[in-house]
Amino acid sequence: MGPDNRIPHRIGRLWELANDLSWTWNPEAPALFRAIDPPLWRRTRHNPVALLRTVGGERLRSLAEDPVFLRRYDAALDVRRDAVVVGHAPEAGTAGHADNIRADATPTWFDERYPALRDLPVAYFCAEFALHESIPIYSGGLGVLAGDHLKAASELGVPLVGVGLMYAHGYFDQTLGSDGWQEDADDPLDPDLTPLERLRGVDGVPWLASIRGGGRRIHIGAWRLRVGRVSLYLLDTDLEENDPADRGLSHQLYAGGADHRLRQEAILGVGGVRVLAALGIEPGAWHANEGHAAFMMVERVRWLMRDGRSFEDAVSRVRASTVFTTHTPVSAGHDVFSHAQMRDWIGETFWEEIPHREELLALGLHPDDEAQDRFHMTAAAIRLSRRVNGVSARHGRVTREIWRGLWGDRAAGEVPIRHVTNGVHLATWMSDDIAGLLDEWLPAGWRCTGDEAMWRAVRDVPAQALWRVRRRLKLRLLDLMRDEARRRWPGHWPESAHLAGAGTLMSPEPLTIGFARRFATYKRADLIFRDRERLLALLSDPARPVQLIFAGKAHPRDDDGKRVLQRVYEHTRDPEFEGRIAFLENYGLHAAHGLVEGVDLWLNLPRVPLEASGTSGMKAALNGVPQLATADGWWEEGFEGDNGWIIPLAPATASEKEVDEHDAGQLFRLLEEEVIPLYYDRPGAGAADDAPASWLAPARRAIEVAGARFTAGRMVRDYARDYYVPSLRGDD
Questions:
Q1: What angle do CA 291, 732, 396 make, to 5 degrees?
Q2: What global pTM score does this model have?
Q3: 119-143 as b/e, with b when 16 or more CB fall inside 10 Å?
């Protein structure tokens, strides 16, 4: 569906603004859209396309004559002017990247440092991208990281194009039964209520490329999402030209068994390379964000061999221009397919022109696999990438140890795997309230720098001013939880106990602890419930009460994770806890913003060393929310002693059960002896507006450390300098 013709000419670029996701970090745009219809903005979960589709024409006409609105409108367009690529999506067979760069645009960070490379795009492949709640094609941290990567690349001017899959049925919509068991339903995506733009092939056909698999040709279409200067292409097989069995390949994220995953990843990797070629995009470097995209590398090897290169030469050329990032040490996060599956389904794709199947299959052999008859996607990605990295310093060390077998007898310290610690997009995850406060106290330009000296100015923010903002954010979170309860009560919840468990009885006064993430067993959401009586004493203390808010989804096929979620949920219905434990259902980006902004303390309890990075604590920190966590992922390097709390490591010889007991004991000790006393250390009588100066010291330091060292801007600059530019130049 095209632009809305009801929008008056004077504000006609509202549609353009809404259909480029750069609005999400434009400081003027959210307030502009909210002003159109505040209740509708809230009901659409801050979706400007849905807002403009729904708001009445009379309201739009009145806004076109409102001088206050027009000033906001002009200001939002002024901010956007230097933040986007101007032009239209490329058609099949045309130049597909640099054609849209404005000649008069302000030079970006990348332009100034690497002007000769600005026209050589980096192709960034990932199975999921989280950019906005209205486009539910993500499951968790990997997608959020990928979305933040695109946003930061746009701001910095890194010539990036994203490639992913268009999941028309989303991930899944979560509801909890009365017993707390997670029930999964489709979360369908309506393209007309999103900024998605369907691309067309030659002569207007809805597909741009195809692959062969399962004895059939599968046509692949693509949608484009504008993310400022960056374009994201989402591949789609739900086309009338395809067999019904193939149309569903792009319906849902991480759905089905191994065969289905294999086919999806062939669409992503092989199809992605072919779609970029059809669009005339010729990447100078390629980045696979996790092993799901490894077929992108294999397809490029095949292309080079088809053109007459030897296998060894083709592999060498692919390696020279490829970056691979691995995100997890957990075995379930690495896809493995049998050689039989490979031959049965994608043999036609990879070997239809060249008979090199054994060499290609050998790329995915794992040195520890005794049978040697499986294709390990991560092993293939490492072999086909010259530059490989983990996502935190600890994860880099763990990854070198895990994959040292690919380098024969090398010691782990000599394995050429590095790390780039993840970061989060500051303008997306820092609340407007905190940013507005920092505008008053930090030097101009603080949003775009990792200068630690500049960020030290956070220490000068007055306690009373920061506390007022923190109180406002907590009240907003409680409002969000009540709104969500009202949305779900009529159709989903048969019992009133659901309302208390949703947090409707919570107060802004108690120390409020947040825990929100994917419910995998190693993340230990239920660790705090190991000592019920000790927890009950904390939560029900009349002088120093505590509240807990949980959120997150278990993978639809992870029954162990669902059982952990169920155990957590059972406590929300326990009358002894008096409504002090809540579970926020159907966790997504919209709820995530409320939680990382509104709680007082962020909790992260992975079993070390299974958390590769864990970026939720960075988002909370940007909002003045300190973290209490195990010494894993980013927190091992991010903990400074005064910006939160860390659970010391258990003895190396401890069993898993002993580790859990140790960590639970240390968690309670820190809460009882340090965290809670500090929060309630008030100079006055404990009034609501009485700023706890002692507590706000780690809150300020949390902002300072996260802002200086753990933003997506710093992360993408690291990738550009140490990975992309050497790949684009062909450096060894």
A1: 40
A2: 0.94
A3: ebbbbbbbbbbbbbbbbbbbbbbbb
